[in-house]
Amino acid sequence: MARVGAELRRQDFVEATVKVIAEHGVANATTRRIAAAAGCPLASLHYVFHTKDDLLYAVYESLFNLPHQALTNVPAGTTAAETTAEMLRQLVTWFSTNPDIAKAQTELFFWAMRNNPEMATRIYAVAIEATEQAMEKAIGTQFDKAFLKATSRLLVHLVDGLIIAWSAHGDLARLEAETETACEAVALLVASR
């Protein structure tokens, strides 16, 4: 039997955790269930991740980085308002095409708020910072830092709200319509500056 490297095993556990959380929720995502979903011994999971919180944070980091890759699809050469709206559209589109990841990320964040507020605060800070960096890269430095940070927060709030609403109503056409309304609002805000 060939040995699997710790980094590959780590990724297997992260992917299995996403599936388990999407199907059973964080509260029922036991390490035993995660190890079984990864097809690995439980001892391997505990070797790679010393605590369940370490595993859950690694999952969140992994989940957070994936949708931000969608921001590379934002077209260049548009106005700052159009670019910001397109960033929102791309993020929501990414989540809607990856519903298990959307569900797992939402579940994980709400779990962290109840059980590990410090982790929730850290997770949210990372989301805001990454969104701000993506915005700055996409639209340049034409806005002051305070406006950029506030707009980044707004994008994160809108994505979260739209995805949570979609989880409740399950209507993709409605999600797309609501996303367009949010994109128009963000574009108007940015254009007003």
From TrEMBL:
Chain ranges of the HTH tetR-type domain: 7-67
Cross-referenced PROSITE patterns: HTH_TETR_2 (PS50977)
Alphabetized GO MF terms: DNA-binding transcription factor activity; transcription cis-regulatory region binding
Superkingdom assignment: Bacteria
SUPFAM superfamilies on file: Homeodomain-like
Keywords, in A-Z order: DNA-binding, Transcription, Transcription regulation
Pfam families assigned to the protein according to its UniProt record, in alphabetical order: TetR_N
Stored PANTHER family: HTH-TYPE TRANSCRIPTIONAL REGULATOR BETI, HTH-TYPE TRANSCRIPTIONAL REGULATOR RUTR
Protein's name according to its UniProt entry: Regulatory protein, tetR family
Organism: Pseudomonas jessenii
